[in-house]
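Human: Here is a favour to ask of a fellow structure person. Comparing notes only helps if you start from a blank page. I am asking you to supply a protein in sequence and structure-token form. Write it directly below this note and I will take it from there.

Assistant:
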Amino acid sequence: MDEPELAEATNQSGISRVGKRLAAMLARPAFMGLLLAVVTVAVFWPVRNCDYINYDDPVYVTSNPHVRQGLTANGVVWAFTTIHSSNWHPLTWLSHMFDVELFGLKPAGPHLVNLLWHTANTVLLFLVLRQLTGAHGRSALVAALFALHPLHVESVAWISERKDVLSTFWGFLAIGTYGRYVQEAEGRGQRAEAGDQKSEGRSPSFTLRPLSSGSYRLALLFFGLSLMTRPMLVTLPFVLLLLDYWPLNRMSGFRRQASGGERLGAPGTLIWEKLPFLLLSALSCAITLFAQHKALVSLASYPFSVRVGNALVAYARYLGKVFWPTGLALPYPHPGQWPVLWVVGSALLVAGLSAVALGLGRKLPFFITGWFWFLGTLVPVIGLVQVGIQSMADRYTYVPLTGLFIIVVWAAGAGVARWRAPKIATRAAGVLVLGVCAMQTRGQLQYWRNSETLFRHTIAVTENNYLAYDNLGFYLTCHGQSKEALELYRQALRINPADYLAYNNIGFCFYLQGRLDDAITNYRRALRINPIDPSALNNLGTVLIGRKEYAEAINCLKAALRSRPDYPDARNNLGVALDKVGRTTEAIQQLSQALRLDPGNAEAHNNFANALIAEGKIDAAIEHYRQALKLEPDFSQALDNLGYVLACKGRLDEALACYSRALELKPEDEMIHKTLGKILAQMGRNEEAIRHLTEALRLVPIDAEAHFDLGCLLAESGRRDEAVKSLKEALRLKPGYADAERELRALDTRPPE
């Protein structure tokens, strides 16, 4: 052999060895699981830089007083006993509380936790499918599609959708342990049959008793945990029946026991076996319907025919986005009525694909399992029971898409085997598909950076999406861009004149601008549409307090609390209003409840301290002022209040420290300069006191009291002419000012220096 040929053969041999080693590594479940985890984390890693979204995240985390406290005994009780956000999902609440315990209220930690759960789901799906089917490579490809498909970005990048990734984890565990139960039962059945052949006339030792199996009980437990995080998987008993058909193959080749002829794979037996799962599903459905009864859209708004039409169109749209995932948005608004051609076309598509799945099911049973997995697991969220304004949602596909992925991967595998396609080509195609999914997912993640990028994108890819206009407007309002925000709210109202949220947001925008009359007008418009909206009632009450219309403010705030008793902001504002009208005892009760609901509310601590001052509880008030400042070190009002109380108690050094910090925050505040002047004068630091009083008068020249204080200090410092000038100015601004007249007379009798 020539040297070049020898070198080429050596190279090919080396490549072959490397390829074999790589193939051997990929064939190991642990290595494949690790690879899936690494790729998933790498693709979704930018999620750590995403912010909270102002859609649901405030309700679930940032403004939820129970979650904001972290993991507490009271929080645990609340999680299990409350129906909040139209759901009963205690484990979801506990998960968010644990996040706060670990990371505070910063969004990076919760985002990474969501990513970790999604990664765990990916690896778990691979292991479960591998266990059920014995197909290593195909299971890995299904798991990779699950990990990287852009439709799953919403479930991972939205902190409020922790319930998605968490419930799926427990659901996949339930499927895995159910598969183990079936394998254990089959093994026992085979051993029993073998024993029967050896013992004539004796009854078999094996009978089908699911609850006697530890794996079966564990599957039930995991299913229950899934339902306690989100009731999405109430259809799991149906999924288990599909898995019985394929890949567990329990509905064919029925085996009979020697005595009695019990059919271990008979459909009746398999359904009976699912009864405990069905009971848990029924209980979860009942709790969910009770929890969502206020959020359910009436049949008058969306007749059943409209709901069926939307469900059919939604199935078709989901299928389209699986294979062409563009224009993904939050939310997709319900059109009210789809064109008849859309509904008919969608119905034909769904019926046709169902017929194809049934037709191919005998030879290719994965078609039946995969297709009806997709159809069935979407039923709870397909819109037949309409909650909210959305016609569909990307997050709803988190579990259902697994069925389609199974069809695609197993069908591709069958095609490759039949046509004997080159392995290199098929593997390259798989890598290409996954690469495209990864790039699309990375692109979709960019829109989730914050509320502005998300809802600007949603407005660009959807039509008549008034909720997106509302959320984008609110984000801009909170970031000082009121002019654009007002136009967005008006656009929302052009789409939906009954959008009370837009009126509420317009009122808040005007309130920030100091246009209180306009704010009140818009809050009242919101309340004409939804008279029990707690946010609008609380906002109106806040403005009325500023207008000193305390009686009406109290009525508004009490109405807000009737609608939402655990509303800490409304209790805080009610306490302020009651304190203003001298009902101090009631004010303290309301403020105390506000702090019980939200101990991290600095404003409530400050207001509670003010009420305690009115009752003469000075030391307790000081502690609450300090707590407010611990929570918000730059809370200037609390600094001012604490400084004043400390000065009254003669603790001048501490008071001086408070006012000095307050002045750093508000260097143009006349009252701070004035108070600092008085404190420094009491401490004998007259020159510094004079400087602050002079600055106070530069800011507000018509303050008679400041002129008087400055005149007295100038007189003490021997600056008689300046003192006389200041005192005369005080007397001019406040005729009959007795103290000023007395000081002037004293200066007239005092010899000039």
